[in-house]
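Request: Show me your protein:
***
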Amino acid sequence: MVGTANNGRMRHAFSVVNSEEVGLNSAPPSNAGSEYGGFEFTREDVYGLLNERMKYKNKFNYKERCENMMDYIKRLRLCIKWFQELEGGYLFEQEKLQNALDFTESKCVEMDLILKNKEEELNLIIVELRKSLASLQEKLSKEKSEKLAALDSLAKEKEARLTVEKSQASLLEEKGKIQGELQSANQRITSVNDMYKLLQEYNSSLQLYNSKLQTDLDTAHENVKRGEKEKAAIVENLCTLRGQFTSLQDQFNSCKVLPMRMMMAVLKATVDEGVKQKDALVNEIASLRAELQQVSEDRESLLLQVQTLTAEVVNCEELVVKSNELKEKCLSQSNQLKTLQDELEATQNKLRVSDLSAFETKTEFEDQKKLISELQNRLEDAELKIIDGEKFRKKLHNTILELKGNIRVFCRVRPLIPEDSPGADGRVISFPTTTEALGRGIDLAQNGQKYSFTFDKVFMPDASQEDVFVEISQLVQSALDGYKVCIFAYGQTGSGKTYTMMGKPGNPEQKGLIPRSLEQIFQTKQSLQSQGWKYEMQVSMLEIYNETIRDLLSTKDSSRAEYGSNGKQYAIKHDANGNTLVSDLTVVDVCSTREVSFLLDQASHSRSVGKTQMNEQSSRSHFVFTLRISGVNENTEQQVQGVLNLIDLAGSERLSKSGSTGDRLRETQAINRSLSSLSDVIFALAKKEDHVPFRHSKLTYLLQPCLGGDSKTLMFANISPDNFSLGESLCSLRFASRVNACEIGTPRRQANMRSFESRLSLG
């Protein structure tokens, strides 16, 4: 009645579906109504009954032998009947659980349909909300631009208003000045007009006086002319008298006649009279000349006065012209001031209208802002519902996968790097955007043909280490809950496996899954202390190099011997509970993340790394990190045993591309053989063959509990977007698709209420 090994696992004939082992001394679910209902068998009773030998007092006493045989047969029938009833009860329970499982699966399918419908509805709502949000944002931006334009125009109007007020004030001041100047100019004009009238009168009097002087001057000229004529007449008379005197002298001399004295007296009287006339004429000429000089001087002074008055008249005329110009300017400024006042009043009216419009716009903006806030809240609620729905879908999906026992597969595409082949643009790999395949689908184009694959999750090249870890954090958390968890990275060399698992040293943002998983486990360990949980953790690290196990934590690492780093021959063993033991492997107790980080640094320095044409630092071995967790709750006395296996597989490579020779060639051949064995195991599991070749390589034999046991297993398929690696990427995606279709059994939680030893077996 004991089950045989199937696929490398021991299956007991009587085991409950909820994975808790039941011994042979357990009672059947119900034996009421059975004629053997009062009997129960223990393991010792069954083994004793099977190994019982007949003892006879007389071996020739066939009656006694027949009775003993009948009694033995009766007891065997009783045992068989009890086992049949027990098996019937278990079959009934199994059928019952299978029905429950079918019901759960149908319910999950219904929930999936409902979730898809809800998701479609939410997507439609989100699309509508996004459209409305886009329109509102556009309207808001337009209103903001209009508001900014209104504010600009308002500012400009305020500036114009200030400038108008300033110009108005300056114009008023200038107007006051001009009015003062106008008044003074008017006064001056009045005084100038009065003076002009006086000057005109004075000028007319001067003109009269000048005409009088001119007449006097003309009279004096006539007198002078007359005096000159008289002088000429006197001179002529003198000449005549001289002639007469001469003739008289001649007569006197000739005739010497008497009366001489009379003639002399007459002549002397005539001469005296001529001299008197001459003196009178000379005096009159001198007086006339003096009068003429005085008239000339008076005339020159009057001319000077006339010129001065003419200049003053010209100045007065200029003042009159300037006064007229000032009047015109004052009138134009008054008109301009009136125009500015009208413009100011119109601007104030426009400003009031603009203020009203701005207030209405502000009110409408506030309403739109409230509406946008409400829509954003609704959008956030819808996104939260989508996130909750996605979490619920993932939970249901994970539950279905756990019930089915499938290996989960995540695909990660690394970004292009400078070392990639020239001309690589990453267009050979694309990601579908449909609702069903968003975040889960990947398409690869080769030779004009498109290959589509769907996995549990697909990470694009821009996905960060944090994004990747968020997706596996709950899986890592289940190791603290008592489950065996295995996560391994698969892919060609240079596809980013080591970066995904270990990250980039010295850069906290690019820490890999192993450091992040340890941080989460130790943080959760601290938070669970308040609930009474205490955990003990142990770490071991090994590598499989050329089909040889090496202990990466061994302190005796002086040489690389054939059977390990310190000459030991490590053997892999599996116990009946599905646990794995590696003999002589170093196991270190750890209490903090710092201790594990130190051990990881030590292991990374001890790991085999080489340079090939495909990768500058290519991992030449399979790296296995194991964290064994044992926990006890002091309040409930519940005990759990969990195991976390994190594995960085060596990358597959083609010799024609890697150019490996010597040691690198042997390493490549060993890596490809072990990965080929892993592929054979996956094919056998996918086809559900009776025999699965786990023992064909150390890697598959070490991974046997993860691939064929009750472990939660996840595989990372790392893909390179380089055109040069297109063939290897397609092979990796096909292999990952086959892995995702494998059923390995339902994960079983290792929890009990019994005491346990401090050291656990390897997972």
In short: The two ends are 28 Å apart (CA to CA). The first strand starts at residue 5 and ends at 6. Residues 13 and 339 are 111 Å apart (CA to CA). The chain is about 60% helix and 15% strand.
